[in-house]
Specification:
alpha/beta, 13% strand, 35% helix, 6-stranded mixed sheet
Length: 319
């Protein structure tokens, strides 16, 4: 018992020291449990400043999942926001599976889950990677149209797999199933066999992907609503996504699933393999598949609604 008490005291002292000395990014914004990032560069900070929602007389704290959640107890700032793009239901981040909504001190929580709570707004990671926080409604709609019909051009390479991690071996499984259909180029850490992303494209992933007909882009883990940048990177680059994740119902109000090949991890993918091989060997049908609309009619309204909900919720919090 005594050892536990001493351990708790040390932990609390460490947390307090972190609040007192660490992660301060600018006068009225502090970050906790984030990767190395400057607050002024964060999507959410830029969004709030653009919309005039970060008054100088309010002190903000942003929390994420890469550390101990108890830091929220040692910070007396007026506005406390939880934000994550990670799968909080996976083993790595299960301590945050409630999106910190059980913490009464949290004013607003932002994540990918579908949650009906007055202190929660759904803001999946792809929204932040595809849409600049300073864009007007017109600019958002214009980008939706670019995503719906991305430039296809000439593509003579089969598939790319760009990933640093493969925690569940999902990417390796797809690679093994398709490696005999065509050459799959892997320029990142997973199954690395290609240097050109770095040497020829200066780590410009969108430019690199525009060479390929297919992009193997499954998530690392599966949960309803958990859709990261991977799917939308493929869409924006004009590739056909080979995808697994979000219960294989990724963003059903936004994405046209007819333009996606949905993989079944642990299931029978013989039809997927046959379909991909058939498309690769029949360029006319491949071209037709590539030119399908990638986003549904009405996707712009759904995306604008996400932006509007976020702005309205912050107005409520600040009032």
């Amino acid at each position: 018992m005594l050892k536990r008490i001493i351990s708790n005291i040390k932990t609390n002292q460490q947390l307090r020291r972190k609040v007192e000395t660490g992660n301060k990014a600018q006068d009225n914004v502090w970050l906790y449990n984030f990767w190395k990032v400057r607050a002024e560069d964060m999507w959410l900070t830029r969004f709030l400043r653009y919309h005039g929602l970060m008054p100088s007389n309010k002190r903000f704290s942003f929390y994420s999942v890469f550390g101990n959640r108890r830091v929220v107890n040692y910070d007396n700032r007026e506005v406390k926001i939880f934000i994550t793009g990670e799968n909080v239901h996976s083993h790595n981040f299960r301590a945050y599976s409630d999106n910190m909504l059980s913490e009464k001190k949290i004013d607003l929580s932002l994540g990918f889950d579908y949650i009906d709570d007055a202190r929660y707004v759904r803001m999946p990671l792809w929204l932040r990677t595809q849409f600049a926080p300073e864009w007007s409604e017109k600019e958002i709609i214009e980008h939706v149209n670019r995503l719906r019909y991305p430039g296809i051009g000439e593509r003579d390479k089969f598939a790319a797999l760009v990933a640093r991690y493969d925690w569940g071996n999902t990417r390796s499984q797809i690679y093994e199933s398709l490696k005999n259909v065509g050459h799959i180029q892997c320029p990142s850490k997973v199954l690395h066999n290609d240097e050109t992303l770095k040497t020829e494209f200066n780590d410009d992933k969108p430019a690199y992907l525009r060479q390929f007909c297919f992009n193997v882009c499954p998530e690392n883990s599966n949960y309803k609503g958990y859709v990261t940048e991977k799917m939308f990177d493929a869409v924006a680059s004009g590739c056909i996504p080979i995808y697994w994740g979000s219960d294989n119902q990724p963003e059903p109000d936004v994405l046209n699933h007819e333009a996606i090949i949905l993989w079944s991890i642990g299931g029978d993918n013989s039809q997927n393999v046959s379909k991909i091989q058939h498309l690769w060997e029949n360029k006319g049908e491949l071209n037709d598949f590539l030119h399908q609309p990638r986003l549904k009619d009405g996707a712009e309204e759904k995306i604008l609604l996400m932006f509007n909900k976020l702005e309205d919720k912050f107005k409520q919090v600040l009032s």
